[in-house]
């Protein structure tokens, strides 16, 4: 198996530290808002990589942190005039709800920064004792010039960064590149006791402390978006390797940006859609399928047309599942010569080559096409063939990609269609009420009532229904 390692700028053979065990850390959200669909690409592709490692027989310990104390959270709490902890709790819950909707498997551990303050303080003290950190009136900084390998992940050179990098000017720093490990408490902000006075941790040190605490001083895989390469991941390497004097991460994996009209999607640019808003229009399977059709490290343009095409593309696989299920009961006794082994080998060859998901998806669709032809040409194919079709799709499309659910794959009954139509009418009615078109909204309620469907409006604007 080959992985493109950002640190080495090349593909490398994947050799875990302690096979078959694999340690994997992914930078999770800063919980001050709903995460956007661009962030979702990192979470979904990390999930697919983890699932494939498990498909290969590795035992993956997967950690995704929650940054629940940060400047952005404090800013939001000041704007809404509620405690920062309340903001963090609200959007932490929203994060878990949304990744659950996206069919992302639960992490083994979701550590929170505020639960690791003591670990963070101990790590900063170690850096201070070794001469890599310095205290200026309660603010503690990492001395970048003391770490000779600074810039090895991003490829940036210190002299070039000093000349023109976008670094906050701070007179307390020895060097403008030095970054915060501990921030002195400001009035009204959350803070904790420390050897340097009350304060709170910097962002970068949080991940180093949590990763070390749960996975050890050296880990196999660290993943995150391309935007984290510098300065976040660069700073993680510096402080972790300075403290422990050993390699921090063997393989660095980074995910490309999701673009809107070739421009990076971001909250700062205002050109973003939240994952939960996109999930209202498209299924989690379609979103996962959409992400999987492009190389994880490159840019990807987001559009409604592409997601709609993904929904339609998935129908081919789901139709094959349905056909295979139906043939389980009607199968004949003629043995098929279909070469399942070829498709398993092709699938693994694609995924073993730096998780080439577009090629692996192509293998699944070629398999679907040929299996359908076999069903047409060999109507008396035995039960084993149908079982093998289902098994292949379960191992690949379901267990690795998460784009189908074989157990719940079924054609809509009349009741299913009716439920969906009622929900559409409820949504239209809510929009009519929001636009103050109460007359038409009442008409929908009355007409549904005539059909024996009663609507009930609840606090918060939600509407439920029941049949008389």
Question: Which descriptors would you attach to this protein?
Answer:
468 residues, alpha/beta, Rossmann fold, Four Helix Bundle (Hemerythrin (Met), subunit A), 4-stranded parallel β-sheet, 4-stranded antiparallel β-sheet, 15 helices, 48% helix, globular
Write the layout of secondary structure elements.
Elements: E1 2-5, E2 10-13, E3 21-26, H1 37-55, E4 59-64, H2 71-80, H3 84-101, H4 117-129, E5 133-136, E6 139-142, H5 158-164, E7 179-184, E8 199-201, H6 203-215, E9 219-225, H7 229-244, E10 249-255, E11 258-260, E12 263-264, H8 275-281, H9 284-292, E13 300-301, H10 304-330, H11 340-352, H12 357-377, H13 383-398, H14 414-434, H15 438-450, E14 453-457, E15 463-467
Parallel strand pairs: 3-4, 3-9, 9-10, 11-13
Antiparallel strand pairs: 1-2, 5-6, 6-7, 7-8, 11-12, 14-15
Structure description:
With 468 residues, this protein is of the alpha/beta class. It folds into three domains: 17-277, 3-Layer(aba) Sandwich (Rossmann fold), CATH 3.40.50; 303-408, Anticodon-binding domain of a subclass of class I aminoacyl-tRNA synthetases (Four Helix Bundle (Hemerythrin (Met), subunit A), Up-down Bundle); 414-467, no CATH class. The chain is built from 15 helices and 15 strands. The strands form five sheets. A four-stranded parallel sheet has the order 4-3-9-10, sandwiched between helices. It has a four-stranded antiparallel sheet with strand order 5-6-7-8. A three-stranded mixed sheet has the order 12-11-13, covered by helices on one side. Helix 10 (304-330) packs antiparallel against helix 13. The longest helix is centred in the last third of the chain and has 27 residues, at 304-330. It is globular, with a radius of gyration of 26 Å. The model has no long low-confidence stretch (mean pLDDT 91).
């Amino acid at each position: 198996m080959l992985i493109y390692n950002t640190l080495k700028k090349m593909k490398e053979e994947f050799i875990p530290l302690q096979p078959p065990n694999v340690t994997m850390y992914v930078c999770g959200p800063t919980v001050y808002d709903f995460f956007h669909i661009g962030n979702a690409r990192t979470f979904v592709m990390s999930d697919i990589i983890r699932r494939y490692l498990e498909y290969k027989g590795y035992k993956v310990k997967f950690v995704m942190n929650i940054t629940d104390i940060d400047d952005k959270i404090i800013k939001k709490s000041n704007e809404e005039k509620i405690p920062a902890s309340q903001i963090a709790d609200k959007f932490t819950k929203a994060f878990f709800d949304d990744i659950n909707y996206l069919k992302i498997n639960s992490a083994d551990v979701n550590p929170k920064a505020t639960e690791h303050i003591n670990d963070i303080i101990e790590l900063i003290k170690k850096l201070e004792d070794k001469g890599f950190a310095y205290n200026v009136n309660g603010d503690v900084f990492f001395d970048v010039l003391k770490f000779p390998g600074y810039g090895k992940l991003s490829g940036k050179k210190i002299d070039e960064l000093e000349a023109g990098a976008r670094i906050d000017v701070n007179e307390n720093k020895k060097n403008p590149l030095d970054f915060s490990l501990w921030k002195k408490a400001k009035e009204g902000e959350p803070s904790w006791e420390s050897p340097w006075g009350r304060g709170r941790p910097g962002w970068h040190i949080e991940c180093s402390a949590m990763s070390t605490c749960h996975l050890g001083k050296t880990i196999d895989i660290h993943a995150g978006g391309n935007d984290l390469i510098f300065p976040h991941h660069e700073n993680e390497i510096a402080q972790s390797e300075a403290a422990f004097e050993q390699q921090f991460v063997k393989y660095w994996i980074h995910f490309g940006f999701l673009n809107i009209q070739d421009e990076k999607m971001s909250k700062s640019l205002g050109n973003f859609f939240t994952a939960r808003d996109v999930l209202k229009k498209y299924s989690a399977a379609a979103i996962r399928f959409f992400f999987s059709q492009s190389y994880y490290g490159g840019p990807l343009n987001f559009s409604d047309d592409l997601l709609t095409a993904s929904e339609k593309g998935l129908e081919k696989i789901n139709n094959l599942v349905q056909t295979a299920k139906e043939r389980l009961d009607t199968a004949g006794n003629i043995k098929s010569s279909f070469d399942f082994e070829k498709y398993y080998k092709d699938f693994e060859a694609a995924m073993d080559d730096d998780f080439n998901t577009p090629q692996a998806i192509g293998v699944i669709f070629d398999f679907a096409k040929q299996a359908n032809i076999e069903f047409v040409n060999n109507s008396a194919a035995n039960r084993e063939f149908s079982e093998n079709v289902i098994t292949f799709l379960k191992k690949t499309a379901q267990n690795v990609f998460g784009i189908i659910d074989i157990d719940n794959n079924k054609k809509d009954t009349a009741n299913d269609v009716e439920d969906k139509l009622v929900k559409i009418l409820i949504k239209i009615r809510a929009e009519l009420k929001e636009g103050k078109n109460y007359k038409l909204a009442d008409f929908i309620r009355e007409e549904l009532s005539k059909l024996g469907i009663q609507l009930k409006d609840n606090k918060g604007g939600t509407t439920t229904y029941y049949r008389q």
